User: Which sequence fits this backbone?
C-alpha cells in the first residue's frame, strides 16, 4: 500500500488521477491539448491566480492531462504531490533551484549520471550554489561535508552507470539529524521496485523518459514531494516558511504543510522557468505507466538471466549488477529492492576499448544509443558518450572504466538477447586475438 | 498569526492577509486530527474578498502549543476564549465534522460571539467505533489510515484532487498522524449534548452535507439539520472530507449564506 492510496500498485498504475470525465465518458485519459482555460468570470480568474482555489490557468503551470500523470506518480511513490516537467534534467534543476539560492551549498554522491554531475559542477555553480561531492554511502564524509548553508543531500537510488546502491535509510538519517532533506533520483528503479520515501527520502525525482514510459517515445521528468519533511523545524528554508512576495506574502509551510514544497515549485519554478511537460507527452507516459509493474518484472527477470549467462562467457572480463551475490552492495540491494535492483547491468569484454566497440557494432537486436529504460534492449559505451565530458579521474570516481559496456536489458525473449550478444562476443574475441 | 489563548501560543491561519477585527470575520474549525489546512481552499477567498479569517489549530494540533482538549464542551469554551483573544466581536463560525460539534457548544455557551453557524460534513453527534478509538490509542497513524479510507469519497480514493498534482490522502495522513487524534475521537464519542445545544441556538444556520459520507452519514446530518432549523445543501459524489474534496461547492454555499447575512439578506 502506498501512503497516498488504498489501491494496490497495479491498480494505481491504471486508475489513479482519473475517473471517466462527465461530458463524454472517455475511458482513456483525454489529451487536453490546450494552452489556456476560460475563466468563469473575472473574479474566478482572480481567485485562481491568487491560489484561492485549485484549477488550471495556463499549461506551463498546470494541465489536466499532465495533472493525471502527476497524481498517478505521486500515488505510486507515496508522495503528497508531484510536478511533471519537460525532462528528467529539468526536474532536477527545478528541485535544485527551489531548495538552493546563491550562497547555498549541497552535497551529492559522486556516483551519478554524467549530465547531472555537469549540472552540479558547472551550471549550478555559476548561480552561486556550491556542491560537495562525496563517495556514496560514506557516512563520515557526509557528516563532514555538512555546512550551515547546506540545503540538500542528493543521490541516485541506483547510480548511473556504475549501479552503486544508495543506502537511503542511512543517508536520510544523517541528513535529517541536521535538518536537511534527502533528494533521490529513482529513475533506474521506478516505484515498482523501490519507493524511496518509504525509506526516508524526502523528494524523489524521475526521468520518466525511461522505464516509467518504457516506450522510448517521449521525454519527461517528475518530482515527488514526500510531504514528510518539516521545513519549519529545519530552520534552513525561509523561502518556504517566510512570506513569499510574488504571492501576496504567502507562507507555503503554514498554508500547505505537507504539500508546501510542491506548491512552491509550481508557483515559482513552473511559472518562472517554464520547463513544462506537454500534455501529449503526459498522455504517452501514462500509456507506459499502465503496464509498469508487468514490464519491470520482465525487465528484472531478463537482467538476472542475462547476468547469469554473461558470467559464463569467455569474452566477458567482469560483470556488475547491484544484487549479484559477489557485489558488496548485495545485502543492501536485497533489502531496498526485494523484487530486483532494476534492469541495468554492466560488463567488460576482451579487447579493451576496441573490443567493446566491436561488440557494440556487431549487435543487431540491441540498439546502440544514449537512453535507458526502453522496453527494447539498449547498449552504450559510457566512456565515449554520456560521460565523455568527464576527466579520466572523474570517470574512475564515478565508477566507469574504459571497457565498460552498459546494458539496459529489455523485455524481449531472453534467448534472442543472448543470441545477439553471442554475435557481439565473437566480434570482440576476434579483436582480442588480433591485438 | 499567533495568539495567546489560555497561556498557550496558538496558531490561526488568516487566509494570507493580516487579520482585521473591523471586518466581518469568518472562523473555520477543523475536524478530528486535522488542522487549519483543511480550509486552504476556502480561507483565502474570504480573506481576499472583504472578510477577515480565523482558522485556528486547536491546542496541541500542528502549529498550536498546549495539550489537546478532552471534551467537546471544553473545545467550545476554548473557541470563545480564542475569539475574544483575537479581538473579533462576532464571527460566522464554520465547522467540519468534529469542528461543528465544537461550534455547537460555542453557540450554546456564548451565542453573543456568533453571527451564524455552518456545519460541513457533520451531524449533531459523531459516534466513534470503539475499534477506531483503540487503534488511535496505540497509533495515530493507524487510526488516520482508517479515517482516511472511510473519510474520503470515491473520487479521492482514485487519486482525484481539486488541486492539480496533489494527493489529498497523503496530505491528510501526514497531518493526522502527528496530531492528537485519540483525544479528538474520544471527545467526539463522548459528546451527547448536540440535541440540547440545538434547542438553544437561535442563529442563522446551514448544513453542507455529502451524499457519500461514510463517517457522518447523510441521514444523521439531515435529521440534525431539521432539529436545528438549518438550511441544507447535499453535495453529490463526495465523501466526508468536503472542504478538501469539493472545495468549490463548499465555498459557494458558504459565500451564499455569509454573503447574504452581511449584505442584509
Assistant:
Amino acid at each position: 500500500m502506498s501512503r497516498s492510496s488504498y489501491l494496490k500498485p497495479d491498480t494505481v498504475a491504471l486508475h489513479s488521477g482519473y475517473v471517466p470525465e462527465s461530458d463524454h465518458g472517455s475511458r482513456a485519459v483525454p489529451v487536453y491539448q490546450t494552452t489556456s482555460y476560460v475563466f468563469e468570470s473575472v473574479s474566478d480568474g482572480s481567485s485562481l491566480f491568487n491560489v484561492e482555489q485549485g484549477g488550471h490557468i495556463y499549461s506551463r503551470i498546470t494541465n489536466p492531462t499532465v495533472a493525471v500523470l502527476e497524481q498517478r506518480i505521486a500515488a505510486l511513490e507515496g508522495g503528497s504531490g508531484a510536478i511533471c516537467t519537460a525532462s528528467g534534467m529539468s526536474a532536477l534543476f527545478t528541485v535544485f533551484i527551489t531548495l538552493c539560492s546563491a550562497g547555498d551549498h549541497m552535497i551529492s554522491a559522486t556516483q551519478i549520471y554524467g549530465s547531472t554531475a555537469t549540472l552540479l559542477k558547472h551550471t549550478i555553480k555559476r548561480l552561486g550554489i556550491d556542491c560537495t561531492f562525496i563517495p556514496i554511502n560514506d557516512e563520515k564524509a557526509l557528516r563532514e561535508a555538512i555546512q550551515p548553508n547546506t540545503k540538500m543531500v542528493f543521490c541516485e537510488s541506483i547510480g548511473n552507470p556504475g549501479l552503486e546502491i544508495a543506502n537511503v535509510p542511512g543517508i536520510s538519517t544523517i541528513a535529517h539529524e541536521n535538518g536537511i532533506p534527502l533528494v533521490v533520483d529513482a529513475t533506474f528503479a521506478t516505484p515498482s521496485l523501490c519507493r524511496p520515501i518509504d525509506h526516508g527520502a524526502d523528494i524523489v525525482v524521475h526521468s520518466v523518459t525511461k522505464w516509467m514510459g518504457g516506450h522510448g517515445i517521449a521525454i519527461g521528468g517528475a518530482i515527488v514531494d514526500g510531504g514528510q519533511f518539516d521545513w519549519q523545524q529545519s530552520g534552513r528554508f525561509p523561502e518556504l516558511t517566510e512570506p513569499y512576495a510574488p504571492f501576496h506574502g504567502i507562507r507555503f509551510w503554514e498554508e500547505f504543510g505537507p504539500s508546501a514544497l510542491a506548491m512552491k515549485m509550481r508557483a515559482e519554478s513552473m511559472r518562472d522557468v517554464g520547463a513544462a511537460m506537454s500534455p501529449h507527452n503526459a498522455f504517452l507516459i501514462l500509456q507506459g505507466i499502465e503496464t509498469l509493474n508487468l514490464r519491470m518484472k520482465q525487465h528484472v527477470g531478463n537482467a538476472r538471466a542475462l547476468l547469469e549467462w554473461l558470467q559464463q562467457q569467455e569474452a566477458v572480463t567482469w560483470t556488475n549488477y547491484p544484487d549479484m551475490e559477489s557485489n558488496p552492495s548485495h545485502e543492501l540491494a536485497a533489502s531496498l529492492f526485494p523484487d530486483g535492483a532494476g534492469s541495468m547491468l554492466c560488463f567488460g569484454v576482451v579487447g579493451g576499448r576496441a573490443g567493446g566497440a566491436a561488440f557494440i557494432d556487431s549487435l543487431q537486436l540491441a540498439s546502440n544509443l544514449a537512453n535507458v529504460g526502453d522496453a527494447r534492449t539498449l547498449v552504450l559505451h559510457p566512456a565515449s558518450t554520456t560521460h565523455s565530458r568527464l576527466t579520466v579521474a572523474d570517470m574512475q570516481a564515478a565508477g566507469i572504466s574504459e571497457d565498460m559496456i552498459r546494458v539496459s536489458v529489455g523485455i524481449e525473449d531472453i534467448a534472442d538477447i543472448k543470441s545477439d550478444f553471442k554475435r557481439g562476443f565473437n566480434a570482440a574475441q576476434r579483436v582480442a586475438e588480433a591485438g | 498569526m499567533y495568539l495567546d489563548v489560555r497561556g498557550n501560543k496558538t496558531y490561526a491561519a488568516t487566509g494570507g492577509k493580516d487579520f482585521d477585527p473591523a471586518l466581518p470575520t469568518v472562523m473555520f474549525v477543523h475536524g478530528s486530527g486535522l488542522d487549519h489546512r483543511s480550509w486552504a481552499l476556502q480561507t483565502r477567498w474570504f480573506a481576499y474578498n472583504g472578510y477577515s479569517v480565523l482558522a485556528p489549530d486547536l491546542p496541541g494540533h500542528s502549529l498550536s502549543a498546549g495539550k489537546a482538549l478532552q471534551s467537546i464542551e471544553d473545545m467550545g469554551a476554548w473557541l470563545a476564549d480564542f475569539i475574544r483573544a483575537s479581538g473579533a466581536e462576532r464571527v460566522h463560525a464554520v465547522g467540519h465534522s468534529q469542528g461543528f460539534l465544537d461550534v455547537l457548544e460555542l453557540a450554546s455557551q456564548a451565542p453573543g460571539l456568533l453571527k451564524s453557524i455552518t456545519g460541513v460534513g457533520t451531524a449533531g453527534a459523531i459516534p466513534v467505533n470503539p475499534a477506531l478509538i483503540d487503534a488511535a490509542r496505540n497509533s495515530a497513524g493507524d487510526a488516520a489510515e482508517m479515517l482516511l479510507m472511510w473519510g474520503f469519497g470515491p473520487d479521492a480514493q482514485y487519486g482525484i484532487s481539486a488541486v492539480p498534482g496533489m494527493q489529498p490522502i497523503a496530505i491528510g495522513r501526514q497531518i493526522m498522524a502527528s496530531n492528537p487524534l485519540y483525544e479528538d475521537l474520544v471527545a467526539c464519542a463522548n459528546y451527547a449534548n448536540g440535541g440540547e445545544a440545538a434547542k438553544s441556538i437561535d442563529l442563522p444556520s446551514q448544513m453542507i452535507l455529502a451524499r457519500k459520507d461514510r463517517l457522518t452519514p447523510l441521514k444523521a446530518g439531515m435529521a440534525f439539520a431539521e432539529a436545528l432549523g438549518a438550511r441544507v445543501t447535499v453535495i453529490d459524489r463526495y465523501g466526508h472530507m468536503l472542504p478538501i474534496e469539493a472545495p468549490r461547492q463548499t465555498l459557494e454555499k458558504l459565500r451564499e449564506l455569509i454573503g447574504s447575512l452581511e449584505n442584509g439578506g
Observations:
- Chain A has two domains: 9-288, 293-434.
